């Protein structure tokens, strides 16, 4: 399947990746000539199945993975030549906890702030702790915290040096509903203050709700990058299921122009079509009128529009078919 890219307005990029490749001994290619630009101030969601290359890509930008080839520029600087300066402006919330369980919340956050060259700030530490509901846990050892609270500490550490670019690698995986809600509220606040956010998530409905643009990666290759709404318009579909009063042996000739199939031994007439612009809804209405005109009675009609998750699943199925 060809890579799908859309023309987007020229805006200031905060991150530019060109030809990024990471291969390992034994032939595994984790990243395969990845090209990607992330715009300043946007929320960019990177979606893909496990093993697609999401974490490797993040690790390459954050200095934890050494790419085999390609280039990374952040804030206009070559990451190979000016890694320390650029990295001071990048925050990361990793999937794995990786915390000193005998340290306190307060010391962990202060250490992270100092590690990236930021001066001490009692006011800022309190602000971060309060925003994540950690203020009352400030002096507790991490080993005494719940899993959700430990995840909050990871987020606090990533925010401690006030990054301009923030990576969130599956930040809400396995956490409670309250933390997920707080997390997205915090993301909204950060975005309002000009922070650029790149997130990976298994909760595709969250990407659909929060992201400005979406990238889909599989087998180390970028399959699609586009504005979220443009994806929904270009790749979205309408699905309608007509439950028939009496089964049909075949689709009536008057309906052959539409994308229809019969299921459930002819008892369900299924439409899949449109293009996300409203065409599908109009065709469903037209099909209903034709059925009535030809005395084909339907007792129920269920209709839905593609979600971003539907589009993602369809793309993954296409990839499997050509693999």
UniProtKB/TrEMBL annotation:
CDD domains: ABC_DR_subfamily_A (cd03230). Pfam families: ABC_tran. Gene3D superfamilies: P-loop containing nucleotide triphosphate hydrolases. Coiled coil: none annotated. The keyword Isomerase does not apply. Keywords: ATP-binding, Nucleotide-binding, Transport. SMART domains: AAA. Residues 15-244 form the ABC transporter domain. GO terms for molecular function: ATP binding; ATP hydrolysis activity. Transmembrane segments: none annotated. The keyword Nucleotide-binding applies. PANTHER family: ABC TRANSPORTER ATP-BINDING PROTEIN. This is Putative ABC transporter ATP-binding protein. It comes from Caenibius tardaugens NBRC 16725.
């Amino acid at each position: 399947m060809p890579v799908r890219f859309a023309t987007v307005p020229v805006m200031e990029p905060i991150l530019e990746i060109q030809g990024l490749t990471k291969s390992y001994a034994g032939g595994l290619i984790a990243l395969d000539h990845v090209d990607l630009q992330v715009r300043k101030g946007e929320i960019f969601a990177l979606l893909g199945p496990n093993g697609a290359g999401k974490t490797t890509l993040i690790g390459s930008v954050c200095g934890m993975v050494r790419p085999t080839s390609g280039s990374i520029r952040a804030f206009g600087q070559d990451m190979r030549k000016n890694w320390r300066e650029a990295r001071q402006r990048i925050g990361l919330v990793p999937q794995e906890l990786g915390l000193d369980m005998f340290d306190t919340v307060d010391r962990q956050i202060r250490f992270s702030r100092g590690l990236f060259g930021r001066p001490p700030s009692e006011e800022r530490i309190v602000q971060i702790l309060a925003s994540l509901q950690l203020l009352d846990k400030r002096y507790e050892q991490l080993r005494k915290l719940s899993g959700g609270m430990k995840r909050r500490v990871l987020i606090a550490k990533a925010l401690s040096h006030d990054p301009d670019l923030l990576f969130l690698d599956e930040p809400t995986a396995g956490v409670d509903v309250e933390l997920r809600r707080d997390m997205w509220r915090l993301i909204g606040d950060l975005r309002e203050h000009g922070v650029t956010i790149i997130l990976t998530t298994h909760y595709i409905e969250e990407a659909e709700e929060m992201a400005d643009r979406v990238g889909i990666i599989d087998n180390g290759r970028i399959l699609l990058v586009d504005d979220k709404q443009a994806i929904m318009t270009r790749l979205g579909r309408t699905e309608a299921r007509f439950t028939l009063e009496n089964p049909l042996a075949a689709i009536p000739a008057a309906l052959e122009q539409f994308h229809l199939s019969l299921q459930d031994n002819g008892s369900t007439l299924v439409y899949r079509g449109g293009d996300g612009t409203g065409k599908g809804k109009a065709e469903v209405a037209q099909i209903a009128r034709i059925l009535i005109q030809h005395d084909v009675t339907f007792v129920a009609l269920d209709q839905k529009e593609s979600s971003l998750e539907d589009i993602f699943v369809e793309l993954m199925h296409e990839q499997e078919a050509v693999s």
